[in-house]
């Protein structure tokens, strides 16, 4: 067979033919992505539970203001019946799971962790765990399972998660999903986006895109926003049940 004649699917490929093996593997992987993309289009007609994902730094220690405020916020949300989802690690993720564990009869404390060589084990306050080998699939699960996102102070990983959700809301792959940024570090990010992306020369985004994240000063403001959104969610759920 010459180089210009493609192999058909029925032809066998020798493992000694490195290039053909690579092509088969490449096509198989791309085919798997098609399967995954098709499956993730499926959505339940209604969700039974309201779930809040809390993103935040893995470096914040117990006893600090940030840790205790995140735990208090999560505890208040759990008392409302909100399941709490985090990355399952230490720091503010642990604080959120610890807060959720204060109301085990009302809320689940969920961890979606990533397998990293330097990552600590999942924190002890998680009672339901999901494991991922890549950041991409992990972020996808956060998106598929969450009704609201609360972002506490954090580093590069937290910023990555925040911008991912922001972008999905911008292009309407997510809708009616609060993205709440808590604390004094986040208004600077929004100010930078406004100044850099909405310049007079070549606008790189739309003004309404800047209104997607909601910056709040403290946990109480975040709780208030989520309570209102959850009340609407419950109202819609009850109406669909009656129908």
UniProtKB/TrEMBL annotation:
It catalyses: AMP + H2O = D-ribose 5-phosphate + adenine. One of its GO terms (cellular component) is cytosol. Signal peptide: none annotated. Pfam families: Lysine_decarbox. InterPro entries: LOG_fam, LOG_family_nucleotidases. GO terms for molecular function: AMP nucleosidase activity. Its EC number is 3.2.2.4. This is AMP nucleosidase. It comes from Rhodopirellula sallentina SM41.
